[in-house]
Amino acid sequence: MIWDPTVVGPLDRCLRCFRESGAEFIVCKTCGVSSGTLEVPLDASGAFCYGHQTQAASAYCGWCARPVCHLCVERQGLNLVGIGLRTYCKNCVTKQAAIEKAFFQQLERSGSCAKHESNPSTFRCARCALPLCDLCSYFITGGVFRARLRSGPLCLTCFRTATLSRGRNQWISGSAAREKGLLSQR
Fold first, then answer.
1. How high is the pLDDT of residue 23?
2. What is the pLDDT of residues 104-158, one digit of tens each?
3. Which of 23, 39, 61, 82 gets the most CB atoms within 10 Å of its CB?
4. Exposure of 149 by Cβ count < 10 A (0-12 exposed, 13-18 middle, 19+ buried)?
5. Residues 158-177: tens digit of each pLDDT
6. pTM for the structure as a whole
7. What CA–CA distance (Å, rounded) separates 95 from 92?
8. What is the pLDDT of residue 25?
9. What does each C-alpha distance from 136 to 40, 43, 80, 131 come to in angstroms?
10. Above pLDDT 70, what percent of the chain?
11. Number of Cβ within a 10 Å radius of residue 69
12. CA-CA distance, 78 to 91, in Å (whole number)?
């Protein structure tokens, strides 16, 4: 199935690996990609660190929502929803990195598409290098009849990022580009 990149979603699955997500979906358990952060209080005063019970917490982890002290903070990032920084604990960052590493090692061993385990990868995303099959690759088209490939291949996420300002409706999938003979012109 080719997902139309102009349609919002899919909302029930990870955008990187297309595996179904659970209700607690913050970091995909298959590929390690983060889909956001939990709603956590901005003020941790009065709370104690989950790892160091005698240390006062300085923040809450945006992935596990546990209170953490300055010793347990691994990294901070911008809070895209509200104001301030999001904090991530060492435990969550380590788990996320291990999941992501295992996912990419498995893809390298199998030579399969990141979204379709049964399909061999025929492309790599030009931006993030994610292995893609013909169905999962998107090209931005150009020309009067959209008969020329301007850029790509791109995964769904990178296609949407590349076309935020314009050109989102000028696309073709890798399989359609192959059928039309557009790939041989590159």
1. 56
2. 999 999 999 999 989 999 999 999 999 999 999 999 887 766 677 888 899 999 9
3. 61
4. buried
5. 998 888 877 677 888 898 88
6. 0.79
7. 5
8. 58
9. 35, 42, 27, 9
10. 88
11. 21
12. 19
The token pair at 101 is 């590493």
C-alpha angle 143-146-152 in degrees, rounded to nearest 5: 95
Find all residues with CB under 8 Å of 33, minimum gap 6, and list them: 14, 15, 16, 17, 27, 100
Cα–Cα distances (Å) from 88 to 54, 61, 68, 73, 121, in that order, read: 20, 5, 9, 6, 33
Instruction: Using DSSP bridges, classify how beta strands 67-68 and 73-78 pair: parallel, antiparallel or unpaired.
Output: unpaired
Tokens for 148?
Answer: 């020329």
Give the residue extent of every domain in the chain.
123-185
Asked if 103 and 27 touch (Cβ cutoff 8 Å), the reply is no
CA 107 to CA 130: how far, in whole Å? 9
What are 78's strand-pairing partners?
85
Q: Tally the residues of the chain.
A: 186
Which residues are CB-contacts of 179 (< 8 A; sequence separation ≥ 6)? Answer: none
pLDDT at 112: 95
Exposed / middle / buried, residue 165 (Cβ in 10 Å: 0-12, 13-18, 19+): exposed
